[in-house]
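Please think about what follows:
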Amino acid sequence: MSDTTVLLAGRPVRRMGFGAMQLPGPGVFGPPRDREQALAVLRHAVEAGVNHIDTAQFYGPDVANELIHDALHPYPADLVLVSKVGATRNDRGDWLPAQRPDELRKGVEENLATLGLDQVPVVNLRRHEGADVPFDEQLDAMSALVAEGLLGGIGLSSVTLAEYQFAQARIDVACVQNPYNLADRSDQGVFDACRADGVPYVPFFPLGSAFSADNPVLGAPAIRAAAQRLGATPAQVALAWLLSQAPNVLLIPGTSSLAHLAENLAAADLVLDQQALDA
């Protein structure tokens, strides 16, 4: 692989991908504010070389997957769609756990239907905090779906280091998707384990939480100073920093704006100097 691509479930993807979480309406619930722009963002991302899109049936629900299908199906041969299971939504938009093996299977089947696929290339098992379902039962259920050909690979999301190590001893972990950014490095142990194992690490909220008005990443003085000195935006500096941390890092910044999409994608070409990295 080159330094711009990483193998994800055996398929090469560019390190700068796209996350579909911001395409539905406010709170990741309901239809998008501007459906035509949402479709245009997806098409422009792929035209610009993105071949890794992260989604979930519970984004909307259904909305993100249906937008991806309507914008891109039939899909380019090199496009790797990654979804996730382990949660659901009620009619108020609340996020609810769906952790039992039968619920994981139902989630995969719903992803297949809304994306129009016979196999989802990768599905992340999103471990819910306080889940009372044994982890080994969840892994067995996901492995059965791989054996049936419904999944290409199993990823993990919101897992502890102990859970990652437990899973890595039982299955081929396709990727790990955990929170990690310049302001929140509490997942450093999992990050380091994935780097040592060569497992793709996909930080979510790479620019700080999309739901926080006071963004701890984009508002950080060191980020703003480096951006000004390098002629970049704070978001580009934050994304470039993540890419600089390890060759197995894959990014999925999300947006519903064509301008922000172009800004995010350009971060892949930004090289941070030692002064910026030190800061």
About this structure: The chain has one domain: 11-215+246-257.
